Amino acid sequence: MSEEALRRQLDLGGPLSPVLIPLVLGLRRKMLLRAGAVSVERRLAGIRTHWYYVPGRPGSDPELPLVLIHGIADSALTWAFTMRGLARIGPVYALDLPGFGLSGFPPGRRYTTIAEHTQVIAALLRQEIGHPALLVGNSMGGWISLRLAQTQPALMRGLVLLDPGGALLNGRDSWQPFVEVVTAPDLGAVRRIYRQMYGRVPLPLYFSQRAFQSLFLRDPVQQFVAMASEDDFFTAEELRQISVPVGLVWGDRDRFLPDGSFEFFRDNLPGADVLVLRRCGHLPQYERPRAVVRFVRRFARRLRAPAQAPPAGRGATRFSLFSYQPSMRLRRTTPE
Asked: Pick from 25, 188, 298, 328: CA 20 to 30 A from residue 39's CA?
């Protein structure tokens, strides 16, 4: 029997298919809570919002919090394998974006715009954290984080992007194949998403194709994709104006985003520190969590490096809690 034939037989609408992913996510949640994470719920920007909080570990910097932002059809639990390691930097907040995980929807609607997502993160930083933070965003989470960096850079110490979305490229034509796939009309489309999203598809996913399909068929995904306009996407000029320090991590087997996305971000983010992960797909935090933690910790050390002393005769520049801080120029790294 061929490998493809075997994979097709693994999901025939059996009883495990709809429940396996919820079961795995439930186990991840229990693992996080037993490891000391705290489940928190507040109303932010008018939306009931949930996140997991892990306090910084001994020796970490309480004034360098991290906010982790997941991608489309995902949740805060995607960071389960990285939160403990990242807590060596500072306190960690893994957010469920509105409509995903345990967070609610905007009043009267079943989806959330990029602007509304950005408002929720800004409210988290102002109301709950109280310090400019290091944001780490995957996929749609990277897209949202970049919008915040563009509009409210004073809320951020820096930004690490993991396979971010939002590159305009050649407009809607570039994104039409993506739109057609994420509608996930059948299990064949689900298997295509698997091959595009993962460097190496975990075998258990073939037992849970219907549950995976249901994640993409939910209103927060389908309506977000349907309502997104070209104005929501980034142009090259907008990226070049980003003023906060940026790191970019990319899986070299990511086929989920349109062709040219990596080059678009690599070439247009000013001074970005770039890491390419071999044999990794669209979810580095899941497929290569240790490499992601190492990269973010190295990036954070540069954020904490003492500023260059001002020329003789000039006073040091002071910044208030949410003031603008100039961009750092960071080195590029070799593929890992």
From this structure: 298
Task: Collect all residues with Cβ–Cβ distance below 8 Å to 280 and sequence separation of at least 6.
Answer: 199, 251, 252, 253, 254, 287, 288, 291
Mode of pairing for the β-strands spanning 92-96 and 66-69: parallel
CA 133/CA 85 separation, integer angstroms? 17
CA triple 73-76-78, angle to 5 deg:
75
Tens of pLDDT, residue by residue over 81-100, are 999 999 999 999 999 999 99
Question: Quick one: DSSP state of residue 308?
Answer: P
Kindly give, in sequence order, each residue whose CB lies less than 8 Å from that of residue 72, ignoring residues fewer than 6 positions away.
139, 140, 165, 182, 221, 224
The second-level CATH assignment, the architecture, of 3-304 is: 3-Layer(aba) Sandwich (3.40)
pLDDT in tens, 144-169: 999 999 999 999 999 999 999 999 99
Domain ranges of the chain: 3-304
